[in-house]
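Researcher: Go.
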Amino acid sequence: LGDEIEVEVTPANFGRIASQNAKQALMQHIRRAEKELIYSEFKDRTGDIVSGTVRRFERSDVTVDLGKFEALLPNRERVPTEEYQIGERIRCYVKAVEQSPHGPEIILSRADPQFVVKLFQLEVSEISDGTIEIIGIAREPGFRTKLAVWSRDEKVDPVGACVGLRGQRVKNVVRELNNEKVDIIKWDPHVRSFITNALAPAKLKTFEVDEARRRVKILVSEDQLSLAIGKRGQNARLTSKLTGWQVDIEPEHLTTMGFEEKVAQAIKAVASIPGITPEQADVLVHRGFLSLEDLLQAEASDLAEIPEIGEQAAAIIDAGRAEAARRHPKIGETSVA
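Model: Structure:
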């Protein structure tokens, strides 16, 4: 009594087809249970970074083996400049756990800006403990990222903490991003300072701020224009995303003075010397005496050879010397206004 006895039984109408159907139904139940396990385990891991192995490609989507489960890195979440090999280990950001027609699916990303935020949280202890806060991020995956940081503690430099000793912290992040350029910017509540920090090292000339339209027009010198805008407009575009303001950068057009204007300016300068009339100044400038310094280097005989000046040469030389003495008095003398 109590022994187990195995007896082979062949139920009626239970042939090969029926047994295959039973097997398929059983496998479906097992797969459904596995997928429910995926959902229950990963639904709270959204926002984490996981490591896995590239298993296969389905068109441009990548299937990643996470150990017990498989996840999907869709083409839209891939970095355009990155290529993966089967068997390669990669780190990804868990963007979502979605319920698809085929059951729960783990969606990974390497292009999401939050991937960079999470990497900095893991690398910089001051961010994870709340001393430094990441205020904003703008990213063009594979090319450039701008990160705005702020410190709750005045003694802690937010940019320096993120860069790390000899740049080690930011180098670790850049290495994970396959040498994507990362700009770490100090956040500022004042839009002018914030945009200036975001566009550094470009030197900005003037700002025109339109508060109502949240638009900023910036003038820069022509030699700073390409630096401020960046390659294919990338620097200006990321600055707009980061700050939330439309940033328009234009070159400063310097008005070039023409020859006639220069001549008129020189005549006016010479005519301002007491004792020299505008008519005399006009003649002197057209004969090459463009300033007070030119007159001081001339002799009365030089001016006397000019028909329109003639006998007035000595008086003009004296007027020039008197003006020079007034502008540059000797030590101990007082300038006469």
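Model: The two ends are 133 Å apart (CA to CA).
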